[in-house]
Design goal:
This is Zinc finger and SCAN domain containing 26. By secondary structure, this protein is α+β, with helices and mostly antiparallel strands. It is 44% helix and 12% strand. The strands form 8 sheets. It has a two-stranded antiparallel sheet. It has a two-stranded antiparallel ribbon with strand order 3-4. About 8% of the residues have low confidence.
Amino acid sequence: MEAHNEGSNLERHQAKPKEKIEYKCSEREQRFIQHLDLIEHASTHTGKKLCESDVCQSSSLTGHKKVLSREKGHQCHECGKAFQRSSHLVRHQKIHLGEKPYQCNECGKVFSQNAGLLEHLRIHTGEKPYLCIHCGKNFRRSSHLNRHQRIHSQEEPCECKECGKTFSQALLLTHHQRIHSHSKSHQCNECGKAFSLTSDLIRHHRIHTGEKPFKCNICQKAFRLNSHLAQHVRIHNEEKPYQCSECGEAFRQRSGLFQHQRYHHKDKLA
């Protein structure tokens, strides 16, 4: 009788469906059978590369590598770096080839990637899209803004005696002061105004010659400076790159953003 009971229990145990183990995403209601699938999915929320995930265990390494090879099937033979898309690999390989197909029309400097050229162009256009919410200063690069913001957390920042510009480190101040020591050897023959850079003199000459080499492809209006053309084009495409960090309102020009902040958020800039 005892053996019969044991057999019945075994049958009941075998008939009972196996409980499914699921891994649930903490961000959404999605569930996954494989833990590695959850890790792969989680990277879409965190932006963290799968191979850098803290939750990836050594026991999952084999499956992990399969996921990587499936996701990034385009590998560079020079350095081993892998990419999801072939276009990304082609762009990366230009670094090894020394190929620099992107050239600045202002000064002729060349770059291996378009992103490098776009960042460089801000030197000529004067565009500074990164705004400090503490003092209203704008910066060309996000790294420059981050470095600047350290000043507001320090009691005694390093200040330039010539122009009043402040720096978070004495070394940065020393580097900046070289600007004031540079001689302005490039002089305009028309009015005598001097410049430290040839490119500045060339741009200045257009005032006298009336030359406007930068033309809008949409309405054919011409401009003396590339920065003026860039501002004008925003009228056609309704681009407003200067956004207020306080309320989100966007503006076509920096001056519009400054005016808005002084009027609506002056207490934040104090």
